[in-house]
């Protein structure tokens, strides 16, 4: 990936900005080739003096990260000019961000963890503000940069405390040090700051404040990228830290994860109700789904990690379909901005409206759609761990969230059309068809293989 990114930079400079579609396609090819390499040539072990670990869990999450990144790039191909992402640098930044995420997923040391995190973040800051002549995009980039720097500082402070009280930066050695010496107040403080830094990256409440503004301000294909790959990478980091590094002090980190989970589910359920902007609605929706994924992690069991792995895969699938729908609904004036802009979409674009409705029902968690099985898996883990209150709060939050998802369906199907939508690009039709089919037939098609893969991935941590 690193060599490929540098080669793409040379190609971009030589062929210049007018041929950015070539760099885009080469970047997508590079991501697919890397994904195939990860799957077809599995390697297990620890390299670079313990800085980097390759195991089943890392492999599973890397495939999700690479898949999410490649699909986000494909989503932006047909309308790069309008979104300001026609510059060849965009695809290269996406590849470098993905490289950072892959380092995060395989980090086995506080140092490599931070290097991966910053490589991802620095590329994402630029991607958010890549449409330089748009004040909202530059504002989104600036907000993300300032708050991202704050979170990095918290993470580094936590890492320095953990190092100070254990004497190690290697995650495997930190576990041994905690087991031998027991917990101390300084170590708990370090863990809290470390998890707060990671919680910012997954946009869990109360570290979510950047998400609605950045999602709304950034160009839509960039928002799609933000909503998929970085979330998976940061969630992997959270899982590895709590299940592996801080496993001797489970009762301490469990309280933090349960709080993050409840706060994210409840705030997202209520805050999204008053939103009129479709992208802000998606931002709060993503905060809520992070909360649901953390329900599984709260259990501290292998079933819980399995639930998180399945949840993230289904979440990526639903998000791809959702953004494909959004990018398909364009009027003469531009892209749909508010929920009201979707009015009457069922009459003018019946296929897109049908896919959008399927995705909304899946996000609520209605059976037999994929979203139901994602929530089933994490709630099951919570109930097995006797976290009944957490599971009940999750179900209630899910019921409340049904209101704003169903409002989108109501506007598309029952309101009168306001304007005509322009024809849908071919590749978006294919993505919508494939992912809506998988969401509807999840139980009969990908359900069992995905469960088996998630089971093996989670097993590698225990």
Automatic annotation (TrEMBL):
InterPro entries: NADH-Q_OxRdtase_suN/2, ND/Mrp_TM. It is a multi-pass membrane protein. Its EC number is 7.1.1.-. The keyword Translocase applies. It comes from the Bacteria. The keyword GTP-binding does not apply. One of its GO terms (biological process) is ATP synthesis coupled electron transport. It catalyses: a quinone + NADH + 5 H(+)(in) = a quinol + NAD(+) + 4 H(+)(out). Pfam families: Proton_antipo_M. GO terms for molecular function: NADH dehydrogenase (quinone) (non-electrogenic) activity; NADH dehydrogenase (ubiquinone) activity; quinone binding. It is found in: Cell membrane; Endomembrane system; Membrane. GO terms for cellular component: endomembrane system; plasma membrane. Residues 107-401 form the NADH:quinone oxidoreductase/Mrp antiporter transmembrane domain. NDH-1 shuttles electrons from NADH, via FMN and iron-sulfur (Fe-S) centers, to quinones in the respiratory chain. The immediate electron acceptor for the enzyme in this species is believed to be ubiquinone. Couples the redox reaction to proton translocation (for every two electrons transferred, four hydrogen ions are translocated across the cytoplasmic membrane), and thus conserves the redox energy in a proton gradient. Belongs to the complex I subunit 2 family. This is NADH-quinone oxidoreductase subunit N. It comes from Devosia chinhatensis. The gene is nuoN.
